Amino acid sequence: MCAYLIKxxxxxxxxxxxxxxxxxxxxxxxxxxxxHMCVTGNTAMCLYLMKKYPSxxxxxxxxxxxxxxxxAASGIVNCFKSVIPLVHPGKTKYEAEQFIETLTDDYGQTCxxxxxxxGHAEMCLYLAEEYWSLLEKKNRYxxxxxxxxxxxxxxxxxxVVVILILGDKTKSNVLSSLETLTNRNGKTVLHKAGVxxxxxxxxxxVSEFPSxxxxxxxxxxxxxxxxxxxxxxxxxxxxxxxxxxxxxxKEREKFMLDLKNNRGKTVLEKARxxxxxEMCSYLEREFNFLSEKKLHAH
Length: 298
What we know:
Blueprint: H1 2-8, H2 18-24, H3 33-40, H4 43-52, H5 67-74, H6 77-87, H7 93-102, H8 111-118, H9 121-130, H10 145-152, H11 155-166, H12 171-180, H13 189-195, H14 199-208, H15 223-230, H16 233-243, H17 249-258, H18 267-273, H19 277-286, H20 292-297
Helix pairs in contact: 3-4, 3-5, 4-6, 5-8, 8-9, 8-10, 9-11, 10-11, 10-13, 13-14, 13-15, 14-16, 15-18, 18-19
């Protein structure tokens, strides 16, 4: 097919040395061919490209992602291990560790952050054990790897990272640590899970660390505000049930009416702001007292 196309359309032939082609060959998002192989964690292809065209090793994507960030996000531990010696040949183990621990993208995210975003438990375990200081790093927005693991919705990944960081602490100390672990917007791990409407993660966090339910962000948003914003009805149902457990009908109504952020917005208004029509319909049915007319009457 290639021979046919070149014969039929001679302008397709580019007379440039192979190395130069590989060094400059990019896709529309400016990510090199090597980086595209790294996204899938294709070990054999990554090693081939790195050895054949070493200058591609440090090409970055538009958001400053290094090939190692992409491999971390792929979750393929063997690929990461195989590539490390080629990325910094001749360096001591200490120098290699320093390189990984300071390697961040434009958002200040490390390889561990990238692995947590995708919820890859095995990759997180490997990175944390090999590069321990990564567990202390926060990105540009003040989000810790636990925030990102919560946002991924992968409970197994979250548990792995919690054990690595807080394994020697009592449950009360773990809870205290999670309550104070907030990003620049004051979001907890439960808030981050709520933003994405991750039902299983929210249920796990609420059942294991119930006091997180009382936490508010800098803007005064409760986790239910974020779940309403996400539009994930099943997640809202689940967390609302746990939040309102033990309350009678009058207490339930008062709680939901009083649940407003710093701009005075209820969960229904938060859903409206984000054009979550199905969530709005659900809230108007389930909590009809939140409707505009009845809210003003209240």
